[in-house]
């Protein structure tokens, strides 16, 4: 079988370079127990992989452009491996190396790596998927299909849109001037993360209790969402770190928005997302007031359906040559957004890998040229796991940024009680 990559997937693949690897990582931290049998995990993955067809395809780039092509037998031992690590610092070092290494284009664009056991009996499973293969929602489908032990809970539907609710294209274009003014009409200051990028990566993680994040949001007069709380945590962390360095610039964040629709096969539909840009209000000293401001911005973007309108615009401009390139360059400028902050709903029930309960789930996505910090979050049944990924040459001390996020969360939690 041969299938051309979608324009969105092909564009993502083309962004890969010597310093941009193009993949994302899901890190599953298993609760203490007997060490996972690598051979048994390989056998399980091999048995279940056919249910996720993209996992058995490679990208062939020929005269017709990049195409998905089925492979014969996947050499699972080349994709499912083990790395040693005995403490959290060693674990972060391993995942930093994995994020800095390109996936082998001659093979399907995924790996699953066991890391550990750590001294406390925990192990981790690092799952890498190229972004051309899967966006955030599709990556969770890969986990459910291939990695997690089977369970009866239905897949999470947050972010999946009903096609019947899609507005007409004319109404989208009628609103376009307002959308462009709202999304791209308020550039920020010079970005503190606009730095040359190398291939090195460093990661840090922080947890936010999911039920408490919901409670903080519900305590606000306008009812903030968990995603609003996440944005407030990251904005609070950036304010604390940038104040430490003596300044608080006006910083915008790009927030990806899923455009997957009800009834579609997320495992085969490729990348279906757009974005909105929001100001992070770093000049506001009060964490709860900043949450209210962010929540109001996000409500306005949702009400205006800005993400879908921008998707329609960039699809229309994709074949417009220099004009399309200019528009995309404007949207990607670091003054339009200094960093991206994504949030994907993960498993909403307790899940296991090889008989071991998954205690925590984290995610990490690639920084990009002139955007040396990337923040990504994923939930499980108990926690919102937040991952910071940086080029350490451009953004040192990523651990301190994660510590500042913890402090920002504590300020939100204590202030709302």
TrEMBL record:
SUPFAM superfamilies: CoA-dependent acyltransferases. The keyword Protease does not apply. It catalyses: an acyl-CoA + a 1,2-diacyl-sn-glycerol = a triacyl-sn-glycerol + CoA. This is diacylglycerol O-acyltransferase. It is an enzyme of class 2 (transferase). Pathway: Glycerolipid metabolism; triacylglycerol biosynthesis; Lipid metabolism. Belongs to the long-chain O-acyltransferase family. Keywords: Acyltransferase, Glycerol metabolism, Lipid biosynthesis, Lipid metabolism, Transferase. Residues 5-164 form the O-acyltransferase WSD1-like N-terminal domain. Residues 270-412 form the O-acyltransferase WSD1 C-terminal domain. InterPro entries: CAT-like_dom_sf, O-acyltransferase_WSD1-like, O-acyltransferase_WSD1_C, O-acyltransferase_WSD1_N. Pfam families: WS_DGAT_C (PF06974), WS_DGAT_cat (PF03007). The keyword Ribosomal protein does not apply. Its EC number is 2.3.1.20.
